Amino acid sequence: MNIFEYNLLVVCLITLFLYAYYIPRKKNFKFSIFITIVLIPVLCFSMSNSLSFLTVDETYIIREATDLKNSDMRQWNLGASRTTDLTIGTIFSILNLLTDFSKNVNIPKIIAKALHWYMGFISILWHPSFSSLHFQLK
């Protein structure tokens, strides 16, 4: 795992702990710690080397989302990746104003993929079946 994946792991573990602690009506600190610790290996395996490469479809999806200003918006016009363009594209529109990524063009791709992975993680936590399972364990 690289430094970006370790940072993503820490953010996901914090999110998971906060979710496990604050979502149920009855707050249980020990249960939240237990769930977080049990899911560390699962998160490590799922994100191991995930930020080290781009899949075929990610090469053009990430390129559009990280530079909306200069993009031809092909994916948007095809009706694909609209959520990615709105979320990651908005974040990178601000980041591009604040930071010069010209020295290392891979950093925005890694950050974009990490944000995309994190949004997927949040979506899984918010999914009703995961939430109902969480409440049944109480």
Automatic annotation (TrEMBL):
<feature type="transmembrane region" description="Helical">
    <location>
        <begin position="6"/>
        <end position="24"/>
    </location>
</feature>
<keyword id="KW-1133">Transmembrane helix</keyword>
<feature type="transmembrane region" description="Helical">
    <location>
        <begin position="31"/>
        <end position="56"/>
    </location>
</feature>
<protein>
    <submittedName>
        <fullName>Uncharacterized protein</fullName>
    </submittedName>
</protein>
<keyword id="KW-0812">Transmembrane</keyword>
<keyword id="KW-0472">Membrane</keyword>
